[in-house]
Amino acid sequence: LSGEYQIEDASVRNPRVHLVFDKDGKSNIPEIPESKKKQDSQSSFLVDRLLITGADLRVEDRRQNVAAHLPQTEVVVDGNPITGNHDVTLTTGEGTASYQGGTLPLRGVGADILLKQKDVEIRKLTSGLGQSTLSLSSTINDFEKPRLNVDGEAKLRLSPLVNFAGLNRKL
């Protein structure tokens, strides 16, 4: 398939997404054959308005024995027909992160992203893990030859994070 695609208005309610990476690094994300990748690169799309509510997102990486669960996830996509850019916002309910058998609350996950034709601007990405918080912004310029710029701020409660990581050291 090639050409221009446009979604004027769509909504998805209560989807369940479970991404799994097995011990060999293979995932349950379907791979696009090389011949299709070249054809698809000539396609353009616009999502004028998309609302996803009540999503339940689980990500599991069995190589590292790490997982995250984000319930009540909401995604809003607002496309600009003039520029072809997309504003994307993401918010979640309180979830969990687990590593090597330990678990901490994952809270305040949110993102404000501008997706362009050849670049992405992460205006704000926030997350809380246990009593620690992270806020960052980033740009990735030119998907063909990506350049990454990141600016962030972290407020860390090290003792719970060290215990969560299984280091069992007193701080």
Summarize the structure.
Helices cover 8% and strands 58% of the residues.
Walk me through what this model shows.
- The chain is 8% helix and 58% strand.
- It is built from two helices and twelve strands.
- The chain has helices at residues 34-40, 158-164; strands at 4-7, 10-13, 16-21, 44-47, 49-61, 66-79, 86-91, 95-99, 102-115, 120-129, 132-141, 147-155.
- Strands 2, 3, 5, 6, 7, 8, 9, 10, 11 and 12 form a ten-stranded mixed sheet that branches.
- The N and C termini lie far apart (56 Å).
Mean pLDDT: 89
C-alpha Rg (nearest Å): 18 Å
Report helical residue fraction. Answer: under 10%
Judged by helices, strands and strand pairing, the structural class is mainly beta
Distance between the termini: 56 Å
Would you count the extended β strands for me?
12
This entry's quaternary arrangement is single chain
Number of helices: 2
Low-confidence stretches: none
Summarize the helices and strands and which ones pair or pack:
Elements: E1 4-7, E2 10-13, E3 16-21, H1 34-40, E4 44-47, E5 49-61, E6 66-79, E7 86-91, E8 95-99, E9 102-115, E10 120-129, E11 132-141, E12 147-155, H2 158-164
Parallel strand pairs: 1-4, 2-5, 3-5
Antiparallel strand pairs: 5-6, 6-7, 6-8, 7-9, 8-9, 9-10, 10-11, 11-12
